[in-house]
Amino acid sequence: MPLHYSIAGRADAAETILLSAGLGGAAGFWAPQMEALSSRFRILLFDQRGTGRNAAPLPEPYSIAAMAEDAVEVMDAAGIGQVHVMGHALGGLVGLELARRHPARIGRLVLVNAWAKADRHTERCFEIRLGILRSQGPAAYVAAQPLFLYTASYLSENHDRILAEIAHGTAHFQGAENLLRRIAALRAFDARADLPRITAPTLVAASRDDLLVPWTASRALAEGLPNARLWLTAEGGHAFTVEQPEPFNAAMMEFLAD
Question: How far is the CA of 2 from the CAs of 70, 73, 78, 174, 239, in angstroms?
Fold first, then answer.
């Protein structure tokens, strides 16, 4: 089934940026970046296969490579030959895979809270989340998800917003089987051996207080890539692009315009 996509930003822009969401798969994750990006770029957006507007059962087995080929399918359908890619967590792995498989089609990479191979702490977090899903069901899984995304102060100050986010996530849950296959894909991903040949200019961004992905995983990723720089924020959690978008947006736009 062809994937639904949309194009936003400047229709006359010379450059296009493809936005690749994390485990939730929803393009809406990037709302805090849209205004900044729209001033300069054409923006290619899509919900990942199995989620949102592209909801459908995923095949077994499933992989980050398959997600990367989905992104290529979207690029081809939109008639776009080359893009910059900005990806969050799982979406960052998709960006790495695109650069590994289709280097000529990638300009610059912005990898947010991404990794070359999942850290053992990240593995432990996913075991806990999977345990909640298996023992208590999707509603409990979705209710626990903000704990891994946001800081405690943000959760406290945005209580009603978080409740609305949980309600939306429960109503639009991607399905347990799809989620299990997507988690298995990110846990199986290992790009360490290929990092030296991924030469696209890359900004690796992370938060020191990310509960789910240690910032040191981003540091290791940046050190393994031959043309990467590391940008760190002191706080903001796994979703610092949502909690504190302004500093990140400034660094991201400066990098893309460099």
Answer: 9, 8, 12, 18, 29
Phi, psi of 84 (to 5 degrees): -85, 155
List, for residues 149-168, the tens digit of each pLDDT value. 999 999 999 999 999 999 99
Find how far residue 171's CA is from the centre of its chain.
21
Residue from 103, 47, 104 nearest 71 by CA: 47
Residue 172: helix, strand or coil by DSSP? coil
How far is 4 from 40, CA to CA, in rounded Å?
24
Distance CA 258, CA 255 (A): 5
DSSP annotation string for 11-29: TT-S-EEEEE--TT--GGG
Give yes or no for residue 1 having a pLDDT over 80.
no
Q: Where is 40: in which H helix or E strand?
A: none
